[in-house]
C-alpha cells in the first residue's frame, strides 16, 4: 500500500528559487497526495508561482512565523477533509532531488518505528558541499552537524542512522506525531524549531532518522542573509543565538538547569571575547542581547518547560544519547585558535606577496630569483632549515648577540632597585589598587592619579602570577632581545623599500644590534629608568607599524592607525614626551605632504590614520592626563618616569646618545652620528636618509625647547624629560647609517670597496664596544635602596596607613625636610604620585612648630594623621632631638644606629585624616579607557570569516 503524503511548501520572497523547487516537487518518483502552499506576505511573485503550480495557496501576513505557517497548512488539510499519513515540509529555497521522497518513504517502510525522517542537505548552488545529515546541539548552544567545514559529499556518510533532529527543509513527519506534539514551538519563529521539535519527539519516545539517500539542495537563505524577513530583521545572529539558548533551557533536565544557566552566562562572555578578537563586534553584541533577552524574561522558559512536562510519555533523559558530546565545545575552541593563527599567517603572507609584487615591478628584467618548483625542492627547503642555520654566520652571530645580551642582563634577574628605579610593591594587587583608587593614602593623602604605566605593569605582573618583581625583571631582561627583533624587522622592510635587493643581512645585524643597545649605552638601563627602557624596546615596533601609513590600500592605512595608536599609547604611558614628539612629527609630515603632493591633504584616508593614531593617546590615557591637570600635576605630562632627580642631556649628550654622565663612553655615540652623516653621500638612498635626519632635527629642536623648562615640585626642581628624545634621536641616526650602508652597496665607484671596508671596521666598534662596556659595567639597579629607618618601625608601617613614620632630615642651620613613610615605602608607581603632589602647607607648618615649639595639640594632630613614629636619621640634629625629647606625648624609641633618634607617638592613631573624596570623573575615565583599549585592540587584529558566505 502506497502511503499518503501531503507536501507543505512555505514561501516568503522566494521567487529566485521557487521555479526550481516546483520542478523538483513535480519530478518526484513517489506520488504526492496533495500540495499545500503557505505564503507569508511575499512582496515578489512567490504566491502566484505556487498558486499557478498547485492551484491553491494560503496567503498569510508577513509577520506569520514558520510554526504558524505549518499550523495553517495542517488546518487547510483538515478543512479539505484530507488526513495524510505523512507531512513533507519544504522551504521555498530547498530543492528536492527527484528520488528524495521515495528514499524517505523506503526508509520509513524499513523501520516502522521511524516517525520523523530527514534528507541529506547539500549546498545550493554548489550541489556537492554537505550542509547537514541530521543535527544536534552542544551544551553551549552550538548547532552541531558532525561535518568538517566545507566537506564535500563523497558517500562517506551514507548510513541511515538515528539522530536528535533533522532540518525542516525536507522533513518527513507523521501527521499524528506532528499534531500530538503541538507542532513547532511558536517561541521559535524561524530558527531552531527543528532541534526543539526533534528533542521533544525524542523525549516522547519517537524516533528520528536521517536518510542520506534522500537529497535536498538548500540555499539557507535566512541563515546566510540572502533575504531578510520581518522575523529575522537585521540581526540574524541574534535570532539564531536566542533560539539556541531557548532550546537548551526549555528542554534540559531540571537537575541540570542551574548549572546550565551559569554555564551559558560565562560561555556567552567567552564567545563575546572570541567575536571581538576577530572584530565581529555586531555578533558579540547579538550574543549578549540574546542572553539578556532570555534571562530578563524567565517566564518564557518556565512556560515552555511546563508545556513539555505535560506532553504524554515525556522523558527528557531519552534525548541524552543523541546530544552532542561534552568535549565538542572545547574542540571548537581549539579550532578557533587555529583559525586565528591561520588568519594572522595569511595576512602576513598577503603583506609579503604585495611587497614582493611591488618589488618585482621595480626589478630589472634579468632578475630571476629561484623558488622551489616541485616537491623535491619543497622537501629540501623544509629539511635544510637547521643546516642553513648552522652554516649561516649571520644567523649564528645573531644568536650569539641574544645570548650575550641575556648574560649582560644577569643583574636584572630577581629583585632589582636602585638609581632611578624604586622598589616594587609586594604584589600585583598593590598596583591594581593604585590604578583604580581616586584618593591615595600616601603622605598626608593625595588625589594625584596613578601614572599611566601602572596599568600595563599591573597586567604584566598579573600574567606572571601576581609578581611585580618578576614583571620588572622581565622588562629589563628581554628589552634588548625584543628591540633587536623589532629593529631587524623594521630595517628589513626599509631596506626593501629603498633598494630592490634589500639590505644585506650583515647590515641588518649591525643596525638591529646597535639599535637594541640604545637603552643600555645611553645609561637608562643601568640607572633603572624603566620608562626609557620600555620605549626603546617598543620604538622599532612602533616605527614598523607606522610604515603602514604608506600602504596603497586605505583600509590597511586605517588598520595601521590602530596599531600605531596602541603602541604609541604604550610608549607614552611610560614616557609622556613621546606623544609630544609624535604630534610634532605628525604636523611636520602633514606640512611636507601638503607641499609635495597638494591633493594628499584633501584625502581623509591619507591624513586621517596618522591623526587618529595620535588622537588615540589622550583618549586611552585620559584617566591619567585629565585628573593630573585637574589636580595641578600637569608637570607630569612632560617629566620622565622614575625617582628624582631625572637625568638631563646637553648638546653633546644628545649627539652621542647619553644621559648626563651615565652610559657607555660618549665617543661610541659620536661614531654613529658620523656614520649617519656619511650616509648622505650615496645618491640611491639619499632621500630616506634625509627623512631620518628630519626626524633627528625635529627631535633635537624639541629637546632644546624642553631643556629650557624646569618645574618646581614639592620636594625639588626638575627639568623636562628629554631622555626619550635622546633614545629617539639615537635610533634615527642608527637607521640613517644602516640605510646609507645599503646605498653604498649600490654605488659603482672605484673607491667603494676601500671606503666600505674602512666603514665596516669603524661601524663594528659601536656594537662591540657597547656589549663590552655592558658586560663590565656596574648598574645602579643592583645596589638596592637602603633605608635608615629601624626595621621594627618599617614592619609596623606595613600593617596599615595609620602606622605612618614621620622622617625628618637635615639640621636647623642647613634646613630641615620631612617625608612620611607608609606601608612598604615609596614603590614603583607611587614615586610619581608623591613627586607631583603639592605641599600640604598646614602639615608643614605643624612639623615646623613641632621641631621648634611643640605643643600637645601638635602631637594629637600627628595621631590624627596616622603618624606612629617620628625619626631623625643619622646624623640627628642635637637641638631638634632635645626639643622632641621634652615633648609631652612623644616616647623615646630605640634605633639600631646610636646617631639615629626615634620617638613613638603616644596618642590614638587614626587614618581617617587620610581619606578623601571619590572622583566619579576618574572612574568614568577608567571605564572609557578599558572599553577604548578593547576596541582598539580588536581593530588591530586580523579578521576571520565566522559565517558561511552568501552564494
UniProtKB/TrEMBL annotation:
InterPro entries: Glycosyltransf_2, Nucleotide-diphossugar_trans. GO terms for molecular function: glycosyltransferase activity. The chain crosses the membrane at residues 394-422, 442-464, 471-491, 497-518, 530-550, 570-597, 606-626, 664-682, 689-714, 720-742, 754-775, 920-941. It holds the Pfam family Glyco_tranf_2_3. Signal peptide: none annotated. The keyword Transcription does not apply. Its EC number is 2.4.-.-. Keywords: Glycosyltransferase, Membrane, Transferase, Transmembrane, Transmembrane helix. It is an enzyme of class 2 (transferase). The keyword Transmembrane applies. This is Glycosyltransferase.
Amino acid at each position: 500500500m502506497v502511503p499518503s503524503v501531503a507536501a507543505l511548501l512555505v514561501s516568503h520572497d522566494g521567487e529566485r528559487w521557487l521555479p526550481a523547487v516546483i520542478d523538483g516537487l513535480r519530478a518526484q518518483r513517489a506520488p504526492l497526495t496533495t500540495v499545500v502552499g503557505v505564503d507569508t506576505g511575499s512582496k515578489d511573485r512567490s504566491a502566484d508561482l505556487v498558486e499557478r503550480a498547485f492551484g491553491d495557496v494560503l496567503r498569510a501576513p508577513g509577520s506569520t512565523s514558520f510554526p504558524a505557517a505549518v499550523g495553517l497548512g495542517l488546518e487547510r488539510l483538515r478543512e479539505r477533509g484530507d488526513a495524510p499519513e505523512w507531512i513533507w515540509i519544504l522551504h521555498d529555497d530547498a530543492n528536492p532531488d527527484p528520488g528524495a521522497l521515495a528514499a524517505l518513504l523506503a526508509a520509513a517502510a524499513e523501520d516502522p518505528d521511524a516517525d520523523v525522517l530527514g534528507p541529506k542537505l547539500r549546498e545550493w548552488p554548489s550541489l556537492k558541499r554537505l550542509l547537514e545529515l541530521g543535527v544536534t546541539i552542544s551544551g553551549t548552544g552550538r548547532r552541531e552537524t558532525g561535518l568538517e567545514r566545507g566537506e564535500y559529499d563523497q558517500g562517506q556518510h551514507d548510513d541511515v542512522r538515528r539522530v536528535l533532529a533533522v532540518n525542516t527543509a525536507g522533513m518527513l513527519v507523521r501527521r499524528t506525531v506532528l499534531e500530538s506534539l503541538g507542532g513547532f514551538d511558536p517561541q521559535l519563529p524561524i530558527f531552531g524549531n527543528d532541534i526543539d521539535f526533534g528533542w521533544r519527539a525524542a523525549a516522547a519516545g519517537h524516533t528520528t532518522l536521517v536518510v542520506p539517500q534522500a537529497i535536498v539542495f538548500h540555499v539557507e537563505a535566512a541563515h546566510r542573509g540572502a533575504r531578510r524577513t520581518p522575523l529575522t530583521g537585521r540581526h540574524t545572529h541574534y535570532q539564531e543565538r536566542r533560539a539556541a539558548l531557548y532550546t537548551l533551557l526549555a528542554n534540559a533536565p531540571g537537575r541540570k538547569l542551574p548549572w546550565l544557566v551559569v554555564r551559558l552566562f560565562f560561555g556567552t562572555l567567552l564567545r563575546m571575547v572570541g567575536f571581538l578578537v576577530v572584530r565581529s563586534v555586531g555578533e558579540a553584541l547579538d550574543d549578549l542581547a540574546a542572553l539578556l533577552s532570555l534571562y530578563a524574561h524567565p517566564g518564557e522558559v518556565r512556560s515552555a518547560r511546563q508545556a513539555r512536562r505535560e506532553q504524554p510519555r515525556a522523558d527528557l533523559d531519552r534525548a541524552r544519547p543523541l546530544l552532542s558530546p561534552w568535549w565538542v565545545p572545547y574542540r571548537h575552541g581549539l579550532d578557533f585558535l587555529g583559525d586565528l593563527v591561520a588568519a594572522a599567517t595569511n595576512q602576513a603572507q598577503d603583506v609579503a606577496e604585495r611587497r614582493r609584487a611591488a618589488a618585482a615591478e621595480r626589478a630589472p628584467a634579468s632578475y630571476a630569483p629561484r623558488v622551489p618548483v616541485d616537491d623535491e625542492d619543497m622537501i629540501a627547503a623544509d629539511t635544510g632549515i637547521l643546516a642553513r642555520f648552522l652554516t649561516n654566520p649571520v644567523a649564528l652571530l645573531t644568536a650569539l648577540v641574544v645570548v650575550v645580551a641575556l648574560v649582560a642582563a644577569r643583574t636584572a634577574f630577581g629583585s632589582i632597585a636602585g638609581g632611578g628605579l624604586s622598589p616594587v610593591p609586594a604584589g600585583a594587587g598593590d598596583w591594581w589598587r593604585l590604578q583604580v583608587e581616586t584618593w591615595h593614602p600616601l603622605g598626608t593623602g593625595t588625589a594625584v592619579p596613578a601614572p599611566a604605566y601602572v596599568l600595563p605593569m599591573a597586567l604584566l605582573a598579573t600574567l606572571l602570577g601576581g609578581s611585580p618583581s618578576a614583571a620588572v625583571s622581565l622588562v629589563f631582561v628581554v628589552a634588548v632581545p625584543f628591540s633587536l627583533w623589532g629593529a631587524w624587522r623594521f630595517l628589513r622592510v626599509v631596506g626593501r623599500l629603498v633598494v630592490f635587493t634589500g639590505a644585506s643581512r650583515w647590515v641588518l645585524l649591525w643596525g638591529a644590534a646597535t639599535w637594541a643597545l640604545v637603552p643600555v649605552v645611553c645609561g637608562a638601563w643601568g640607572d633603572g629608568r624603566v620608562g626609557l627602557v620600555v620605549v626603546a624596546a617598543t620604538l622599532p615596533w612602533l616605527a614598523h607599524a607606522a610604515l603602514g601609513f604608506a600602504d596603497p590600500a586605505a583600509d590597511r592605512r586605517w588598520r595601521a592607525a590602530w596599531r600605531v595608536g596602541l603602541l604609541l599609547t604604550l610608549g607614552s604611558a611610560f614616557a609622556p614626551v613621546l606623544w609630544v614628539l609624535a604630534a610634532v612629527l605628525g604636523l611636520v609630515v602633514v606640512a611636507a605632504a601638503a607641499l609635495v603632493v597638494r591633493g594628499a591633504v584633501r584625502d581623509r584616508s591619507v591624513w586621517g590614520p596618522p591623526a587618529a593614531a595620535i588622537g588615540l593617546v589622550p583618549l586611552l590615557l585620559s584617566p591619567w592626563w585629565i585628573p593630573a591637570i585637574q589636580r595641578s600635576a600637569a608637570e607630569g605630562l612632560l617629566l620622565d618616569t622614575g625617582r628624582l632627580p631625572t637625568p638631563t642631556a646637553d648638546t653633546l649628550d644628545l649627539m652621542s646618545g647619553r644621559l648626563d654622565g651615565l652610559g657607555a663612553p660618549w665617543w661610541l655615540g659620536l661614531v654613529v652620528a658620523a656614520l649617519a652623516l656619511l650616509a648622505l653621500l650615496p645618491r640611491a638612498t639619499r632621500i630616506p636618509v634625509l627623512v631620518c635626519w628630519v626626524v633627528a632635527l625635529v627631535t633635537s629642536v624639541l629637546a632644546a625647547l624642553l631643556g629650557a623648562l624646569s618645574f618646581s615640585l614639592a620636594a625639588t626642581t626638575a627639568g623636562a624629560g628629554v631622555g626619550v628624545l635622546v633614545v629617539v634621536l639615537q635610533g634615527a641616526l642608527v637607521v640613517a647609517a644602516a640605510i646609507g650602508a645599503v646605498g653604498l652597496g649600490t654605488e659603482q665607484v672605484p673607491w667603494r670597496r676601500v671606503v666600505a671596508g674602512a666603514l665596516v671596521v669603524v661601524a663594528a666598534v659601536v656594537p662591540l664596544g657597547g656589549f663590552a662596556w655592558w658586560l663590565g659595567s656596574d648598574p645602579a639597579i643592583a645596589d638596592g635602596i637602603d633605608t635608615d629607618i629601624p626595621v621594627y618601625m618599617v614592619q609596623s608601617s606595613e600593617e596599615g596607613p595609620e602606622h605612618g613614620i614621620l622622617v625628618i632630615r637635615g639640621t636647623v642651620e642647613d634646613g630641615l625636610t620631612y617625608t612620611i613613610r607608609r606601608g612598604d615605602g615609596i614603590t614603583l608607581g607611587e614615586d610619581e604620585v608623591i613627586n607631583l603632589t603639592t605641599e600640604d602647607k598646614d602639615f608643614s607648618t605643624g612639623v615646623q612648630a613641632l621641631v621648634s615649639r611643640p605643643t600637645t595639640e601638635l602631637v594629637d594632630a600627628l595621631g590624627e594623621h596616622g603618624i606612629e613614629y617620628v625619626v631623625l636619621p643619622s646624623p640627628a640634629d642635637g637641638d631638634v632631638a632635645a626639643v622632641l625629647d621634652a615633648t609631652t606625648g612623644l616616647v623615646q624609641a630605640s634605633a639600631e644606629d646610636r646617631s639615629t633618634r626615634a620617638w613613638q607617638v603616644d596618642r590614638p592613631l587614626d587614618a581617617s585624616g587620610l581619606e578623601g573624596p571619590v572622583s566619579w570623573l576618574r572612574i568614568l575615565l577608567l571605564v572609557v579607557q578599558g572599553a577604548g583599549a578593547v576596541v582598539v585592540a580588536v581593530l588591530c587584529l586580523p579578521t576571520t570569516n565566522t559565517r558561511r558566505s552568501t552564494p
